[in-house]
Amino acid sequence: MAAMAGLYRRVLPSPPAIDFSSTEGKQLFAEALMNGTMQGFFKLISYFQTQSEPAYCGLASLSMVLNALAIDPGRKWKGPWRWFDESMLDCCEPLEKVKETGISFGKVICLAHCAGAKVKAFRTNQSSVDDFRKHVMACSRSDDCHLISSYHRGVFKQTGSGHFSPIGGYHAGKDMALILDVARFKYPPHWVPLELLWEAMGTIDQETGLHRGFMLVSRLHRAPALLYTLSCKHESWTSVAKFLLDDIPVLLRSDSVEGAKDVFSIISMSLPSNFEEFIKWVAEVRRSEDGDKSLSSEEQGRVAIKEEVLKQVQETGLYKYVTAALSSENCVCCNKFPANGIDCLPTIAFTVCCQGAGFLSGKSGVSNRYTCQGTGVRCYRSNGGKPVTVVSGIVVNESGKDSVDMLVPSSQSNLSCCSSSSTVMHPSSTDVLTVMLLALPPQTWSAIKDEKVMHEISDLVEANNLPNTLQEEVLHLRGQLLLLKRCKDNKVEEDLEPPPF
């Protein structure tokens, strides 16, 4: 049986492109370096990656830029390492669909926002070649901002159609941009005339009927997620998003709403059974690699912030109402953990490890398919600091085994496994629902007919009344939620602006 012939690279059409490794390409690099317009190149080249699938150019470009900006994804990639990979960028479009048809300009922007980056995006009909040149030059002079271009290969006489790649530098004298092509199996990095790149971006994407363009990606001034984050990996996320953004305002129009207690009772009785799959507890902790039972100063800092956020959630006035609502016999929410956070340690270890494995592997909602071997609860200390509780286990499913360590925050010192108490505080449905209600857009509550009740609820959920740390967490979740609404309503292509808080 004869082997089927495959494709090994392509010859780069030159002109118009100039191979980065050619004599002329090296000369352009040296001159641009001397002129200071290759500053961003070094961070990008340090994290340069090849797209793992023929249609993953948008995912590869974004994961490369996120890693170059040192944005912490807050969850594991493989082993103990937190690292952005294409497989982790699926909050706006299922990976299987991207693998088959690629991804649009708007949804790459959505992914960047969801990953915790700051993004400014422009289609070519919303900008000009002169503005584009200024942005390319600014990013090329800095390693705090990177530019991703969406363009059509045909303009450069290359095979293929729509493509994404980061811009790695700029030569002012020749007015040429360096494309760090993430399809390295096809074409090497290459220089192209900037005006020709603008023309290639000015083409129409046949899937959306809109112009292509470019995006500027940089870091936010704060961590994107401290304790909670939305999860869109479970297929039911659209129905939960619909409940939060569309159904709750309808429910609140009821004439039976006569007080704050009625508001939260109505919401709790209508919660989707899979509500907890939509918001996740970012509680991973990594031990020191040398095997000792201590935490690095960085991890200790993360633990302290997480504990503080949890404590602030439980000190809000809203938390008391949610606790009462979820304790009602009529509540349909499947509250896996008691609202008071008390349970036996072996059960906590088993459940948290299985749920954590599902989340970290990108398969939330299927924790019942996992089993745990050798679960345990341990304490770690850092330079005499407060003890930290971590549940650990070897998680097994049909794909094999993996070790999972999940942090269990304790807002009270007497709830540590290192103390004489046999109980431990852990996030429950009450914590999750409290934060999610705080994150809802303010206009959600305007549907309440009784003005006195509406003002009472507004005081309970007003973000400006929250401590700074929790306020940032809530605003981040609100931004994520509004982005997902754009996805659900198919408006990510029309609205490229960051989600309003």
UniProtKB/TrEMBL annotation:
This protein's record includes keyword RNA-binding: no
A Gene Ontology molecular function term of the record: glutathione gamma-glutamylcysteinyltransferase activity
Class of this enzyme: transferase
Annotated EC: 2.3.2.15
Record GO biological process: cellular detoxification of cadmium ion; detoxification of copper ion; phytochelatin biosynthetic process
Keywords annotated in UniProt: Acyltransferase, Cadmium, Metal-binding, Transferase
PROSITE patterns, per database record: PCS
Record keyword Magnesium present: no
Superkingdom of this protein's organism: Eukaryota
Domain (Peptidase C83) ranges: 2-222
UniProt cross-references to InterPro entries, sorted A to Z: Papain-like_cys_pep_sf, PCS-like, PCS_N, PCS_N_sf, Phytochelatin_synthase_C
Name assigned to this protein: glutathione gamma-glutamylcysteinyltransferase
Species of origin: Lithospermum erythrorhizon
